[in-house]
Specification:
Blueprint (H helix, E strand, L loop, with lengths): L21 H9 L6 H28 L2 H4 L11 H6 L5 H16 L11 H25 L3 H12 L14 H20 L5 H19 L8 H5 L10 H9 L11 H5 L7 H10 L10 E6 L14 H4 L13 H13 L4 E8 L2 E8 L12 H18 L3 E4 L6 H4 L3 H6 L6 E3 L2 H11 L6 E4 L5 H11 L4 E5 L3 H10 L8 E4 L10 E4 L5 H4 L7 E4 L13 E5 L1 E3 L4 E2 L12 E3 H12 L14 H10 L3 E2 L8
Parallel strand pairs: 1-3, 1-4, 4-5, 6-7, 6-9, 7-8, 9-10, 10-11
Antiparallel strand pairs: 2-3, 2-13, 12-14, 12-15
Helix pairs in contact: 1-2, 2-5, 2-9, 5-8, 6-8, 11-13, 19-20, 19-23, 19-24
Protein name: Very-long-chain aldehyde decarbonylase CER3-like
Length: 628
């Protein structure tokens, strides 16, 4: 049976819970035509304060997830997975609760709303009340909630998050957040009743309270140990992220709110606290663990640039789709694009662990459209080369090039870097062998004819050569007879007749299997017959125009179930699914292959790579999609 006050009253409302802020908005708007300006001002302050509180948590979450800044300062090295993100999805419930509690306080003490903007004496009073009342009260309550019944029925929810994050601070039961509201409210109410309250004091106290809560849960050490060497008494007045992380790993210690003094007085101070903080601070300037595998991605466009954990963690944990809330942020994305274009280098975006191996995603700071600007090619290759050489210096085993980073026209599918640096220890991989395998394995064995666009590309060539040996007739759309004949001559002589050059889409009007390697317009899709299926390896994917046809997604594979710390989706992919070229690099790393996989695809290795992927637990993803 559920414990009393352990669940939230609005837990079934989902996003509709924000409608509970409606009366506050309504009162502010209604006050324009009424004389009840005091109550309206109070509602306005509540809304502003709630917004600022949410902003503080969001900014701390963004900072915490900027791995390119915090990677060497992280305390617990694991990643935040989808399970934790989902559990903490409604982390901001307490903000709404405290707004309602503040409204209740207004009705209980209506004479306290006529507060001055600022009263310096109130700063001293509220600080004293916090130290004398809030700190010991929170310590006592927190220790009580670690008792058997209260912990198992209430506080265990907060501790169920394996990796402390700023949002973890708000992840607690209804009862706990009511009590926390009291801990926050006592100094505010006390200073007001004593005649020292002010608007600035209320704002300042609440926001500093939230700031310090986020600090303790951020999971990276930001407070330098030198602070406590110069001012030794400070270590009793201010906790650190390392200090509070110890409470999450050794839960019978370090109960304090913000001041370790109360753990000293209560004999619950973890003896490792100061040494661990010093160690974390000293080692923050050193490189952490070297990744075993790196997937080198790039930004796709202005909107997908916002699909990263350090923007909105919850948004990045779901497959990318354009949302209305992204529109006001597009200027920020544009500004970031300019800054990265002028001054930036490849940076760490996400990571996860697979069977003890550390896999990271690095990002080349360039947007998709920039890859098609002739004058930008040299600079982009320089960025990719910089990432490869850095991976080589660090001791990375395999680096896989994503999408346009391995464009044939740009760098020959990676051959440029391998030829330029013949002594590379890191293996450079385009991963397209597995991409080809995924596409080919989706094609039913009874198919006798396919229509192939992008036919002379790296992937198109491999698909055509593989299918013709299965005696599948391949209609290769290309205007270049020279390039077609070059590919045709690569096929065994007895299978060359299965490769047919076509120059118009009308040639496929009776072919129900289209393999799209070059973007096609809705009018070009109209040449396909009813019930045709569009397989594709084109970026971005084609627009699904035909309701009487089905469309495949980009080639992808699902990572093994034992992947750990994965908490973000790769562009439009489902949770736990990565692009096939990413998966190809993973297989290359797990197999320990020592060759580079660059340039033309070795058709004879397609089945070998496919079997290796299945052996390591990667699974194909069904890409069947029909438009209603």
């Amino acid at each position: 049976m559920e414990a009393p006050l352990s669940s939230w009253p609005w837990q079934n409302l989902g996003s509709f819970k924000y409608l509970l802020y409606g009366p506050f908005f309504a009162k502010v708007m209604y006050s324009r035509y009424q004389e009840d300006s005091i109550w309206a001002t109070w509602c306005l302050h509540v809304l502003i304060l709630c917004s600022l509180r949410g902003l503080i948590y969001q900014l701390w979450s963004s900072f915490s997830n900027m791995l390119f800044l915090t990677r060497n300062r992280r305390i617990i090295k694991g990643g935040v997975d989808f399970r934790q993100i989902d559990k903490e999805w409604d982390w901001d419930n307490f903000v709404l609760l405290h707004a309602l509690m503040a409204t209740l306080a207004y009705y209980m003490f209506p004479n306290l709303v006529n507060l001055p903007i600022w009263d310096l004496s109130g700063l001293v009073v509220i600080t004293i009340l916090h130290i004398v009342i809030s700190e010991p009260l929170y310590y006592f309550l927190h220790k009580c909630f670690h008792g058997s019944y209260l912990f198992s029925h209430y506080h265990s929810l907060h501790h169920s998050s394996a990796i402390p994050q700023p949002f973890t601070a708000g992840h607690a039961t209804f009862l706990e957040q009511i009590l926390l509201g009291g801990v926050i409210g006592i100094p505010i109410l006390g200073s007001c009743l004593m005649g020292y309250g002010s608007v600035a004091i209320i704002y300042g106290y609440v926001l500093i309270f939230d700031f310090l809560r986020c600090l303790g849960h951020c999971n990276f050490e930001i407070i330098p140990h030198q602070l406590f060497l110069v001012f030794p008494f400070m270590k009793y007045l201010l906790y650190t992220p390392t200090y509070h992380n110890l409470h999450h790993t050794e839960i019978e210690t370090n109960y304090c709110l913000f001041m370790p003094l109360f753990d000293v007085l209560g004999n619950t101070l973890n003896p490792k606290s100061w040494d661990m903080h010093t160690k974390a601070s000293v080692e923050s300037g050193k490189n952490g663990r070297v990744p075993d595998f790196v997937f080198l991605a790039h930004v796709v466009d202005m909107t997908s640039a916002l699909h990263v954990p350090y923007m909105f963690r919850s948004f990045s944990s779901t497959p990318f789709s354009t949302k209305l809330f992204l529109i006001p942020l597009l200027p920020l994305s544009f500004l970031a694009m300019l800054v990265m274009w002028l001054y930036s280098k490849p940076f760490l975006n996400t990571f996860y662990y697979l069977r003890g191996y550390l896999h990271q995603t690095w990002v080349v700071p360039r947007f998709g459209f920039q890859y098609f600007l002739p004058f930008a090619a040299q600079g982009i290759n320089k960025q990719i080369e910089q990432a490869i050489l850095r991976a080589d210096r660090l001791g990375v085993k395999v680096i896989s090039l994503a999408a346009l980073n391995k464009n044939e026209a740009l760098n020959g599918g990676g051959t440029l870097f391998v030829n330029k640096h013949p002594n590379l220890r890191v293996r450079v991989v385009h991963g397209n062998t597995l991409t080809a395998a995924v596409i080919l394995k989706e094609i039913p064995k009874d198919i006798t004819e396919v229509f192939l666009t992008g036919a002379t590309s790296k992937l198109g060539r491999a698909i055509a050569l593989y299918l013709c040996t299965r005696q599948v007739r391949v209609l290769m759309l290309t205007s270049s007879t020279e390039r077609f004949q070059k590919i045709q001559k690569e096929a065994p002589s007895e299978y060359q007749k299965y490769l047919v050059q076509v120059t118009k889409y009308q040639a496929a009007k009776n072919c129900k299997t289209w393999i799209v390697g070059k973007w096609i317009t809705p009018s070009e899709q109209n040449f396909a017959p009813t019930a045709a299926h569009f397989h594709q390896f084109v970026v971005p994917p084609v627009f699904p125009f035909r309701s009487d046809c089905t469309y495949g997604d980009l080639a992808a594979m699902r990572l093994p179930l034992d992947v750990q710390g994965l908490g973000s989706c790769e562009y439009t992919m489902e949770r736990g699914v990565v692009h096939a070229c990413h998966a190809g690099g993973v297989v290359h790393s797990l197999e320990g292959w020592t060759h580079h996989e660059v340039g033309a695809i070795d058709v004879h290795r397609i089945d070998l790579v496919w079997e290796a992927a299945l052996k390591h637990g990667l699974k194909p993803v069904s890409s069947f999609r029909q438009i209603d």
